[in-house]
């Protein structure tokens, strides 16, 4: 009995997909399900097994001042880094895609922070922020300003971390915008110029709508990056001073691995996953209708 052509191709295709499906399930979906389940139990100890407590962890979150502070910090962090990263990366892409001297050197300079290890980036900026003899204070001293403890003050610590994150990520997203700009037909720019459109009008009417799919992609990834930031914070401030730079993922790490409260850390992780899921779904529902794909 001969099988239909579709069935004959189904088995080889399934076998080729099987390794990816197994890895995705083992390292993504299964841990996510285990995290949701762990959030409903207490943390098991050597002489005390895990006990089902339902939603008690989530009720405690509402009264946890450190969690509320971390959530607020993360909101500020995302609100500052996401739009700034998008604007700066698009501006850099437009600059290096134009006909300027040293274009290759500019691309290298913009992209270099992306390839640096995160620990190295943190240590570089630690030198910049060092009070008294750091680079920023040395420059400020030329204009008569005194030393500033950028990472030791609650007023400036989170802003200092935000600057580092933007500096690190803008070059990465520049690559996607650069690819999108190269796909814009030059005839459209020439036609807009002949019609008398200035630089701002060409950007608003031609360039911005055509890079909208890339902007949506960058927006989603920038929000994800803002919620998974932990390396720079550990290296530079460890969440201080007085939790001024504690973000949600850092709080998950400290709760689960420093205080060994895995059940409560799982509950925070679930909240973080829900926030990311709602943000992603909301972006696609609200913005995907305004994005035109070619």
From TrEMBL:
Pfam families: BPD_transp_1
Annotated PROSITE patterns: ABC_TM1
Membrane protein topology class: Multi-pass membrane protein
Keywords: Cell membrane, Membrane, Transmembrane, Transmembrane helix, Transport
InterPro entries: ABC_transporter_permease (IPR051393), MetI-like (IPR000515), MetI-like_sf (IPR035906)
Record's keyword annotation contains Kinase: no
Record field: transmembrane: 75-96, 108-128, 157-179, 206-224, 264-287
Domain ABC transmembrane type-1: 71-283
Protein localization: Cell membrane
Record-stated family: Belongs to the binding-protein-dependent transport system permease family.
Protein name per UniProt: Sugar ABC transporter permease
Native source species: Tistrella arctica
């Amino acid at each position: 009995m001969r099988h239909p052509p579709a069935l004959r191709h189904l088995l080889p295709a399934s076998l080729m997909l099987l390794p990816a499906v197994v890895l995705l399930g083992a390292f993504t979906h299964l841990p996510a399900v285990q995290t949701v389940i762990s959030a409903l139990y207490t943390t098991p100890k050597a002489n005390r097994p895990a006990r089902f407590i339902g939603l008690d962890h989530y009720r405690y979150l509402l009264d946890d001042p450190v969690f509320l502070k971390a959530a607020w910090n993360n909101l500020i962090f995302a609100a500052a880094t996401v739009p700034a990263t998008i604007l700066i990366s698009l501006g850099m892409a437009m600059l290096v895609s134009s006909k300027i001297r040293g274009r290759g050197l500019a691309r290298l300079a913009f992209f270099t922070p992306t390839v640096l290890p995160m620990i190295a980036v943190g240590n570089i900026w630690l030198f910049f922020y060092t009070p008294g003899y750091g680079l920023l204070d040395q420059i400020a001293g030329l204009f008569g300003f005194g030393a500033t403890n950028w990472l030791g003050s609650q007023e400036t610590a989170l802003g200092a971390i935000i600057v580092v994150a933007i500096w690190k990520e803008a070059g990465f997203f520049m690559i996607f915008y650069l690819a999108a700009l190269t796909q814009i037909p030059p005839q459209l720019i020439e036609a807009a110029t002949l019609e008398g459109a200035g630089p701002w009008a060409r950007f608003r009417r031609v360039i911005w709508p055509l890079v909208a799919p890339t902007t949506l992609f960058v927006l989603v990834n920038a929000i994800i990056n803002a919620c998974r930031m932990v390396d720079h914070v550990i290296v530079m401030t460890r969440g201080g001073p007085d939790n001024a730079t504690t973000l949600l993922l850092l709080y998950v790490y400290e709760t689960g691995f420093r205080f060994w409260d895995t059940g409560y850390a799982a509950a925070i992780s679930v909240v973080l996953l829900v926030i990311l899921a709602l943000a992603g779904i909301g972006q696609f529902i609200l913005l995907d209708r305004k994005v035109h794909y070619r």
